[in-house]
Amino acid sequence: MTSFQEMWAELLPVGRSASSGGYRRFAWNTADAECRAWFEQQARSRGLTYELDRNGNQWAWLGDPRGQGAIVTGSHLDSVPDGGAFDGPLGVVSSFAALDELRSRDAELTKPLAIVNFGDEEGARFGVACIGSRLTAGVLGRDQAYELRDADGVRLPDAMEKAGYDPTAIGADDDRLSRIGAFVELHVEQGRYLTEEHPVGVASAIWPHGRWRFDFHGEANHAGTTRIEDRRDPMLTYANTVLSARKKAKLAGALATFGKVAVEPNGTNAIASLIRGWLDSRAADEATLERVVEEIRQAAYERGERDGVRVELTRESYTPVVDFDGPLRDRLAKRLGNVPVLPTGAGHDAGILASAIPTAMLFVRNPSGVSHSPAEYAEEADCLAGVAALADVLEDLACQ
Ligand code: HGY
Ligand code: MN
Ligand code: MN
Ligand code: MN
Questions:
Q1: Where Zn(2+) 2 is bound, by residue (predicted)?
Q2: What value of ipTM does the predicted structure carry?
Q3: pTM to 2 decimals?
């Protein structure tokens, strides 16, 4: 059995790039497999019942996995490309450390307690976030999941099969969810709300957010022989759409990010035929989010008219607003005292499960607020404060 620091030290090097210091733990790749092996080893070394569910999520049970009213904690171990060390793993390592703390307190559990690693939370490989929890909650159907492909055209089920998992049973798991009394996810804060306040906070809401793909269809041609006035260059329409997105979002107090782009044929001396730009947009409420995306769409289409470029828009994923208000959050706030209550613009597995079971989140202070970057960080003392808070919450929920 290992302490927080030892678990952290074991996991830290897995999937870390020597050059950037960022992580490349993508669904079903080798780094992901190593993280999963680490999770299983942590479960078994504690004598917990280890389980893999139909969607490839990992569970470690203290008590009966078939029992009712289970209290579940955990998070994810995968990362965005060149992501940080804390986003996801802090929640999973803290869950094992909090369970160890409960054992050291000789806590008398009256309900099963489980730790979960939800697969593919970042959606870095197949483009949809929270695939493991969406499948389990029935928010993503089996057929839709079977359609997902990575940048090399590899289908999700084939990637699962190659990693040794049976994809034929993926899909909603109502039976499992019906046995869960509450899910509490601890996560590093991805912002600066807690900086001055307190090492640990409780989530009030998750902003609505989504991913849209813009396809800009132009006309391939020679960069050295095609007159400017004869071009139908999608790069122009794309670039103007990126600038419009920033302007529209700023005006609306929303967020819009074009962080991923694909260019065909992607040759220095060739005018592109097609540009695919992925928009991540988020706002404090759904009406604002829908309005901002519509304004960006209009700007793209109008510019496309001018450039002779055909624009197509596809919504790839969408997560409605999650409001954590309610008895579970009140209970956490009561147990933890007057810790700050804060919203987040980041999506989480807790946000997906909130539609099906009582769910709450704890945040641990991140001094710079930076996330989805190798610079992501949390002080050890704040991480241990997070473990203690999670242990208090789990004891309050699982020992009554
Ligand atoms: O995109 C998000 O907000 C989360 O990190 N998956
Ligand atoms: Mn993330
Ligand atoms: Mn995360
Ligand atoms: Mn998450």
A1: 87, 122, 372
A2: 0.89
A3: 0.93
